[in-house]
Known about the structure:
alpha/beta
Amino acid sequence: MQQLVYVVDDDLGMLDSTLWLLESVGLKGVPFTSGRAFLDACDPAVNACVLLDVRMPGMGGLNVQEEMRARGIDLPIIFVSGHADVPIVVRAFKAGAVDFIEKPYNEQLLLDSVQQALERRKPVTRRDPRLAEVQARLDQLTPRERDVLLPLVRGYTNREVAEQLNISVKTVDLYRSRVMKRMQAETLAELVGMAIAAGLVDSLALREPVRA
């Protein structure tokens, strides 16, 4: 059965470049410029995954994800977005996304993620063998580094973390850099994904709005 990649993005330039990239490795991309058009046309029975932009006119990616669940469309979702603030990343992963990649994306990173999504087509096979590596990195963090990690992936700013831990913002910056390096995370979105994959999501919640 041919493997398909549904690509949903209102940016035509990004859409075309992503389709070309997929075709260069023998994957068939099926383009859509709106979430509604994708939902109306997608076939949940095919061997496919979805590359889904977060912010689109009309129906955003997170709403598309919710509608897919409501319709019983069980296709692995990879979010690709230039707007990777922590609450959005956490919400996407908690709703079942398999990855969240920031634009402009690394081409090989995107292709690797697509291949992994296609291989774990069914939810029961979604556990990634790299989870043990992530857990090993978490185990190497010092207590203070873990103290900084948890509020960061919850969506708190460096200043808010400093206030919580009664340390300076400069010290938080230092520990944040150490955590990113130890966890081998290039972006905060990637760090959030690691924390969720390791099971820390049970203790995480979307940030409540800060009251004035």
